[in-house]
């Protein structure tokens, strides 16, 4: 049984996923995307298992544990996530946390070892750790607001 996608947002998302490298043997028609529900769920399950294995790096586990100790929610974001989806190698990992990214980076550095240095960029509220072959960058989530007539970045 094939189901047509009706929601334009989910339709676009599924078309993006199906047209990428994730599901290379699924024919895609960009004007109309039809796929069996069972097949889609099976492929999504496989994709999520592969995604989870991409996040098994020892350093990512340490950062997760430190965030838990600090009771801070932390998320891997940006190009690293994109590169996992595109099946590319990436050494640049960005984290956003609900709280201070600088505090999280300093606690992570202590956990990684006494020789690990944190580069702090106070003007931007960010911190960076170069560890092994990874470039780890931390930032705290923030709210931004703009005047109605302003140009948004």
Sum up the structure in keywords.
153 residues; globular; alpha+beta; 7 strands; five-stranded mixed beta sheet; 5 helices; single chain; two-stranded antiparallel sheet; 40% helix; disordered N terminus
Describe the overall structure.
- The chain is 40% helix and 22% strand.
- Residues 1-33 have low confidence and may be disordered.
- It is an alpha+beta fold and 153 residues long.
- A hairpin with a 4-residue loop joins strand 5 (118-121) and strand 6 (126-131).
- Helix 3 crosses helix 5 (101-112).
- The protein is globular.
- It has a five-stranded mixed β-sheet with strand order 3-4-7-6-5.
Count every beta strand, where a strand is a DSSP E run of 2 or more residues: 7
* Tally of alpha and pi helices: 5
Biggest sheet overview: 5 strands, mixed
Question: Strands of the biggest beta sheet: in what spatial order?
Answer: 3-4-7-6-5
- Helix and strand content put the structural class at alpha+beta
Low-confidence stretches: 1-33
Q: From the alpha-carbon coordinates, what is the Rg to the nearest angstrom?
A: 19 Å
Fraction of helical residues: 25-40%
Distance between the termini: 44 Å
Name the shape in a single word. globular
